[in-house]
Amino acid sequence: MPSIQEVVEARERGVRWLLSQLNVDCSISPYDHAIGSFYRLPWAFAVTGHSWEGAMLLEWFRRNMFNEEGDFAGKYSREDADGMYPYPNSNLIYGAHLLRQFDISQKGMRFLLTLQDKEAGGFYSRKDNLGPTGEQDIWVSSQAGLTCLLTGRLEAAIRVGVFLEMMWNLQPDVEGKLYHVYSKKEGLIREPRKCVDAGAPAQLYFQPGIAAAFLSRLYMARPERKYLDLAKGYIEFAMRCSDDKLSRPQVRKTGWGAGLVYQITKDTRYRLYAMRVLDYILDAQYPEGHWVNLIASSTRPERHQSIETSAEAIVHLDHITASINVY
């Protein structure tokens, strides 16, 4: 396991690189890039002690991409949030709340909750002029649930727990495959491209990882055994996935989930797995301090991808280290 000092040094190199990408007003330019590259920056600044820079960046969002409705929609594109509309909102609200920018987090939550299905409990993947539309996804809904917990929306978070329980119970072969998309019209979507196949390489390992992280946090807030059992089910699915997972950035959320399950259960199997993910994150850092998602399929410039994946790596260094060092 890397030492705490090694983790701290990696985190500091990473945040220095992120800070070097900012303008004087803590914005990021050019502004034609869309929201998907920068939504996690306030969260990363919050957990590294850079509250001033985080608050300044959120001020840029206030002026340019935060409307009266509480949505992050303004001058610049949201094209790369297609199919995951609540996700950047959830991350920005999370960071804003950590940074005590409560006007953003509270108004943002009021809008975010309009995207939740009150029956199934998941969050819709798209929004049009008539309101939420599309499908509900484990990953997007779990992050929205985490943001609900942080901002005190326990009942909405419990509905996400209901959604994840339903998704688990609908799986036809939960030992080998995790279908992660649900439609109110069709039910569980059983398509290969909407499935994490435990026996295949290059999968969306973050799907079960973030589900386990959310369910662990929900158990902490409301200690009902079913939430912990579900968290263990999701993370154990992730742990039995293809060995290539520990060489891909999509694995980082599984370290988050495993670390939190360890924190609750003190079962060292989860700690050892989270440590392996932590090793991967440290090994993947470039000498300049950033991380690169070499297998991301995106039209965004490489710099923008690096900003996104570096902010995420810093956040997960915080998550994993905090949980696996609780004895």
Explain what the structure shows.
The protein has 327 residues and is of the alpha+beta class. Among the domains are: 1-115, no CATH class; 134-246, no CATH class. The chain is 54% helix and 7% strand. It is built from twelve helices and six strands. The strands form two sheets. Strands 1-2-4-5 form a four-stranded antiparallel β-sheet. The chain has a two-stranded antiparallel ribbon with strand order 3-6. A hairpin with a 2-residue loop joins strand 1 and strand 2 (131-137). Helix 2 (41-47) runs parallel beside helix 12 and helix 10 (252-265) packs antiparallel against helix 11. The radius of gyration is 18 Å and the shape is globular. The mean pLDDT is 93.
Structural class: alpha+beta
**Overall geometric form:** globular
Instruction: Give the low-confidence spans.
Output: none
E-strand count: 6
Tally of contiguous helical segments: 12
What proportion strand? 5-15%
Helix content: 40-55%
- Which strand order spans the largest sheet, edge to edge or round the barrel? 1-2-4-5
What would the average pLDDT be, to the nearest integer?
93
Q: Quote the distance from N terminus to C terminus.
A: 15 Å
Characterize the largest beta sheet: strand count, sense, and whether it forms a barrel.
4 strands, antiparallel
Rg: 18 Å
What string, H for helix and E for strand, traces the elements in order? Answer: HHHHHEEHHEEEEHHHHH
